[in-house]
Amino acid sequence: MTYERPDESSELPVNRAQQTPGDSKTAVNHETSEDAACRQATVIVRGETIRDQNPNPPPKASSDKDKGKEGSPEKEVSEAKLKMQSRLPALDDDAAVGVEKEQVVIRDGKADLAFTGTLLASVAPPSAGQKQWEEYRIYETNGGKHVFSKVTRSVFAKEEDRHKAEVFEPSPSSVPSQLLRSARDLTRSRPLDWTDAAVTFFGYDPLAKTLYRKLGDQFEEHIS
Asked: Contact at 8 Å (CB) between 147 and 167?
C-alpha cells in the first residue's frame, strides 16, 4: 500500500499579514503619536482638575497675635468702681477733711501707716469716662508730721488699686528727710518744710496744683 504525504507548503495560511519595513515604521510612528496625544490630554485634564478643586489658595492660618486682635475678651468692669467713678471729683472722705480721727493710709510693698491726725486736703479728677484715675491726699499727724498719699484706681474688677505713700518729718531723723534737707540746703537758704516734700512727692501736674490751691497760697512762688 502506498501512502501520500500531504504537501505542507500548500497548507500555509493565506491571510497572514504581510508587513514591509516601511509599514512597520509607520505603525510605530502612529502609535507613538497616539501615546503622546494621550499623555498631553492627561496633563491638561489634570491641570484643569487641580484648578477646579483649588480655585483659591487656602486661607492663611491665623497666628496667636491675630487671634488676640480679633477675639480679645472684654475686661470685666467693677460696678462698685463705676459708681465711685461717677461721683468724681467728689470722694468718699471729703466730709472728713479737717476732722481729727484715727487714720490708716495703705502702702503697697510696705507697712500701712496708722496714726491719729487730720486729712488736710484731697483731690480727684472729674469723671470723663477714663479707665483709670488718681486720688491725692495730704494728712497731718498729731505729732506734726505730714503724710502724702497717691492712689491709682481702675474700673476693671481684676485690676487692683495701687497705693503709694510717704511720711515727712520736720526734723531730719529719717534718711529720706536728711537727703531732701541736704539737697535743699545746697540750693536755697531756708530749711526744707513739708510743702517742699509735697512737691517732691506729687510734682506739678494739674491734679497736684488743684490740691495745692485747696491748701492756700503757700505753694505759690512769690516774686517781687
From this structure: yes
Contact 47, 120 (CB under 8 A): no
Q: Give a yes or no: residue 109 inside a domain.
A: yes
pLDDT 10s digits, 49-84: 444 444 555 555 555 555 545 555 678 999 999 999
Q: How many CA atoms lie within 13 A of 13 on its CB side?
A: 4
Could you tell me if residue 122 is inside a domain? yes
Identify the pLDDT of residue 20.
46
Domain total for the chain? 1
Q: Which domain holds residue 199?
A: 100-214
Cα–Cα distances (Å) from 43 to 29, 33, 34, 86, 131, in that order, read 21, 15, 14, 73, 64
pTM above 0.85, yes or no: no
